[in-house]
Amino acid sequence: MEDCIFCKIVKGEIPAYKVYEDKNFFAFLDIHPLNEGHTLLIPKKHVEWVNDYEPFSDYWETARNLSKVISKALNPIIVSYVVYGLGVPHAHI
Question: How open is the CA angle 11-12-17, to the nearest 5 degrees?
Answer without folding.
Answer: 125
